[in-house]
Write a structure and sequence with these properties.
single chain; alpha+beta; Glutaredoxin; Glutathione S-transferase Yfyf (Class Pi), Chain A, domain 2; 2 domains; 4-stranded mixed beta sheet; 56% helix
Length: 217
C-alpha cells in the first residue's frame, strides 16, 4: 500500500528543505518506498478534516490504510522499523540509532528552534538583543558535545541510520546563522547527509512545491 503524507501547500521555508515533511520524504526515499503527497494550505491545517489526522493542526501526517500518524519523529521511526535501510540489523545498534533520533529531537533541536523564534518572532522585542547571545550559547553548548562525540567519523554510530537523518535535518536550520561553520566536522557531517541521493530526491520534491516545477533526480 502506498502511503500518503501531507506537506505545506506554501512552504514557509521557501523550498529550503527545512519543513518537517522533508524528514519523512527523506526517510521514504532512503528505504525506496513510493509515496503520495497531499498539499495542505495554512487555513486547511486548522480545519476539522486535518485536525482529525493531526490534533495540533500541523504538518506532516502519514496515512497508510487505517494507520494515521503525526509527528515527524514518530513517522520516521515507523518507516525505519518496517523497511530496511534506516536501522542496523544488530539489536544494540538499532537501540543506539533510536537513541540518536531522540537526541536530535529532544536535546539538539530545541535550542536551534529557540534561535529561530528569537530572530523571527521576537526580533523586535526590546530585550531581543540580550536574549539572542544566550540562545546561541545554549546551541554551542550542545554542539560542543556533539562535535566531540562525532569526531572524525562519517556518521554517529557506524553506518548511516535514522538517527543521522534526524540529526542532519535538525542541524540544517543552523546554516544561516553561521554557527554550524564554527564546527567543521559537524558542517561536513551535514554536507554528507545532503549529498545522499535520497536526500537530493526528497529535497527536489519539496523544492518543486515552492517553485511549481517538477523535481529532477
Amino acid at each position: 500500500m502506498i502511503p500518503t503524507i501531507t506537506a505545506f501547500e506554501q512552504s514557509p521555508d521557501r523550498g529550503k528543505g527545512l519543513a518537517r515533511d522533508m524528514r519523512v520524504r527523506w526517510a521514504l526515499e532512503e528505504v525506496g518506498q513510493p509515496y503520495e503527497v497531499r498539499l495542505v494550505s495554512f487555513s486547511a491545517m486548522k480545519e476539522p478534516a486535518h485536525r482529525a489526522l493531526h490534533p495540533f493542526g500541523q504538518i506532516p501526517t502519514y496515512e497508510e490504510g487505517d494507520l494515521v500518524l503525526f509527528e515527524s519523529g514518530a513517522i520516521v521511526f515507523h518507516i525505519a522499523e518496517r523497511q530496511a535501510g534506516l536501522m542496523p540489523d544488530d539489536a544494540n545498534a538499532r537501540a543506539r540509532a533510536i537513541t540518536w533520533m531522540f537526541a536530535a529531537l529532544n536535546t539538539v533541536e530545541p535550542p536551534i528552534l529557540e534561535l529561530v523564534t528569537a530572530k523571527i518572532l521576537e526580533g523586535d522585542k526590546p530585550w531581543a538583543g540580550e536574549r539572542l547571545p544566550l540562545v546561541k550559547d545554549r546551541i554551542r553548548h550542545r554542539l560542543d558535545d556533539l562535535s566531540v562525540r562525532l569526531g572524525d567519523a562519517d556518521w554517529l554510530d557506524g553506518a548511516f541510520s535514522a538517527g543521522d537523518l534526524m540529526m542532519v535535518h535538525a542541524l540544517l536550520r543552523l546554516r544561516p546563522s553561521g554557527i554550524l561553520d564554527e564546527y567543521p566536522n559537524l558542517a561536513a557531517y551535514v554536507a554528507r547527509g545532503e549529498a545522499r541521493p535520497a536526500f537530493r530526491r526528497a529535497f527536489g520534491a519539496q523544492l518543486a512545491v515552492f517553485t511549481g516545477k517538477p523535481s529532477i533526480g
